[in-house]
Predict the structure.
Amino acid sequence: MLDLYSPEEKELILERRELSISRIREIENENAIPASYMDFFRKGARFILEPSYDAALPERYESSWLNPVYAVGQCGKEMGRMLSFLAYELLGIIAFKKEGRLLDETILEEVFVEVYSAFTVSYAEEKAEPSIEEIHGILYSFVSDYADYTVAFRTREMLDTSLNFAKDIIMNADLSDISYLDEFGEYIDEDTKKVASFLNSLDDADIKAMADTYTEGFRIGFINTGKDLSKKKSVSIHYVLGFERVVREAVKNFRALGLEPTIYRRQLHAASRNGMRRSGFQGAWVNKQMDFDHREDNALFLDKAFVTRKLEVMKNTFEEYKKEAREYAGPAVMEVFGEEPFEPETHEEAYSLSDEQHKLAVELAAKSGTLTSQYIRGDERSFTIISYPVPAIGKDFEAIFRETVKLNTLDYEKYKTMQQHIIDVLEMGDHVEIKGKGANKTDMTVRLHDLPDKKTQTVFENCVADVNIPVGEVFTSPKLSGTNGRLFVSEVYLFGLRYENLEFTFKDGFVTDYNCTNFESEEKNKKYIESGILHHHKTLTLGEFAIGTNTTAYAMAKRYDIFSRLEILIAEKTGPHFALGDTCYSREEDVTVHNPDGREIIAKDNEHTLKRKSDTNFTYYECHTDVTIPYDELDTITAVDSDGNRYPIIAGGRFVVEGTEELNKPLDEF
């Protein structure tokens, strides 16, 4: 448990908590308000006294107050939404109790009591429920007033290496006894236990090799971008529970590099949550539909005043930890894939952002990103990402896991050479044409940056296995003017959500239209895309065009029929992909970067990002989402020069550039 408080602070918090808990214990025997409301507060009180994830489980969700559909059915739209919001917030108590975050527990218990008191007083005095405005005011004040603590602590967690809760478990627990997983305070399902048990079956050498691949990718990322790792003193590890044996070795490796890891939990407080996206350490999903229903709970409190307050708290915290921020090297992320496919249901009873709030969400993301980059400079930090399967992927889990380990250690020298051949042909054109085949309606023209000096300059990055593991892509930041057409993919999973027949239309590099077929209503389909892919923007630019070359990964996905379950990190290497949002060089456009052949990469800006040099109000999109066309939906990729001469890269879904024949061998299986 964390030791966060001085004796005096702890005593004051305990006094506050005892008052709340005493009142909460009394609720069970009271009948001061109507039965529907009384049911909410009795169940809330029981949860606070004996917290568990039971009410969140899918089989109990239909009649749970965590479900806004149920809550609205019991209490009406506005009151039901607010009570469901409060129930969802209370879930954090499970983790906070394990972690020793006494203040976090206390403020949640206090707001629960305050809302209950509003009901009892109103029914005692007015014989009616309290007004919507009164309950909204209590919840709004809770989120806003405590932002100076919740938002500040979230920022601190990334930088303060003395916060050792998870690290202590990882480094000191007996990992051979998987009951250690319960100490994290996260939801632990059978898959999580199976991962830990499987890793326990591997030799120490295998575990060390996995950790070495992960941490070496981080180290090489600094070398390849010419950044000085010796100036850094910390790194944050983000991972999914079950991989502690690997993380323990990674911690040792990072310490050998002079970096002390921070390992902090996924976002829990509403003021810091970001839709369904998680960062930090995390357990299994209790109920993805529940998290989908609550992904826009910030509609309850997102206004101009909250945006201003959150940014002020972030700035003050960064100022307090200014030294630590400059010494922070970046995140090392270990992701998983293979989870059960999730197809959400959209519920009108759930909170959703208004048009004005969409604008505020974009503003907050942009300004918080800019603020963060002032203290953690992009040109001085790096990152790495690696991914492994989980048992939910099916009966072939162990075989897929071992193949993934091999994928992560493919000979990047061999790929570097083949990818250079592809770049040489691509750069014979001034644009690239990409066409799908069969039912895939992709027909894109991507305009390339000018290349004044082919001997010393390049517009494509030859991406080997460093920050972005596994190996296997060449990518560029396209010119926007002249980048037109339709991008289509029959099925793709992004941020854990499935999209069917997803398509985007581009005009001069900007998205002008988009749709999918997940729902019968076009309005619902568009809203689904706006929230999950466009990140509340009305349009985005095409920030990246890439050709994935990891046909070995593609073959693995086809062999085990797991393509739809691949993590985007691997999926993007299995065909051409197109990223909506910022370029890969966001906030690092002016950093000199070279390919392994020594040529400088010059395509790091586009017409949108160049505005940063003259427009003081310029903001980045703060998102970058890759959409990949698999090889079996791809017909051709062709470079075309200004005279109309055509230089094929892929024809009939196969690589045709001389020197890339080996890339087709895995495809021969199919």
